[in-house]
Request: fold
Amino acid sequence: MNVCIDVVEYLVSAACDINARSNSGRTALWKAAQSGRREIVHLLYALGASLDVHSQVGETALFECTRRPELTEIVADLLLWDADAKTTDIERNTALHVAAAAGNVAAAECLLAAGADVNAANEYGNSALHNAVVHGQVHERSFCTICSYVPR
Reply:
């Protein structure tokens, strides 16, 4: 028995707003995702949680998870469930910009496979590749992933 799952199920069954946002605009699904609680992310999604709720700075749970390689399975789950791989924050960064800045190659690969635009430019004209360079993430594998991706 998982007490946390039981509590989530109880609260949702008691008409708790599954998409309620914190002061910063984050939802329970976002909090579960950033905490690496994959089983809770799955439960909240199954119960109807929205994937693409934007925070005050325009980010979604997908953005948050692309920052940390240990959350790549959750990135893959969110994309499998059709989280928007092309959505942007208030500076027009995509989740691919965030993954590149963090050096998270696995997340970048997931995003590119889901249709992220490798050439999308943020409000400063920077692509994901620019972010990788600026943040010192241009090691061989990440550089090749971002530079050699050919959309299908």
Notes: The radius of gyration is 16 Å.
